Amino acid sequence: MLQIENKDRFGKVVAGALAKIELTVKDAGTKKRWINAIAKATAEIEENGVFMTYQEDDHSLIIWSQKSNNIYTANGVCQCRAFEQGSPCFHRVAARLVRLYMEPEMLPKGNTQAEEIPYLKNSSYIKAERVGRVRIN
Ligand SMILES: [Zn+2]
User: Fold this and answer.
1) How far is the CA of 76 from the centre of ligand 1 (A)?
2) What is d(CA 41, CA 14) in angstroms, rounded to the nearest whole number?
3) 8 A C-beta contact, residue 31 and residue 48
4) pLDDT for 85-104, tens place per residue?
5) Distance 87 CA to ligand 1 centre (A)
6) Is the pTM of this model over 0.85?
């Protein structure tokens, strides 16, 4: 089971992921799908963490889907239908978010200047204050 105890750190992880999509994905439809996947992953982690297990050895996230009753092991790849069709799926996003949360050394240090972190540049135009119930600003 997975429990997010440090909401502040998790919020930073989510904000960083949104900023990265904003800056690196050009196509509006693709951007929207990724942002939806991030929102879904954030909500699932918060609400259904009890059905998830993070594996430190291979950085994968095991997700028991209540909807399909399948078990997905998400890392860079996934076994779900969305991934098969080449769409962003929340399982992979959740795996990435949880990895960044669990391994804070992968996050930029608190006093690092924004210009040193490409994906944090110009992130001010992200207007959302919250994703699901997670504060990101
Ligand atoms: Zn998936």
Assistant:
1) 10
2) 10
3) no
4) 999 999 999 999 999 999 87
5) 9
6) no
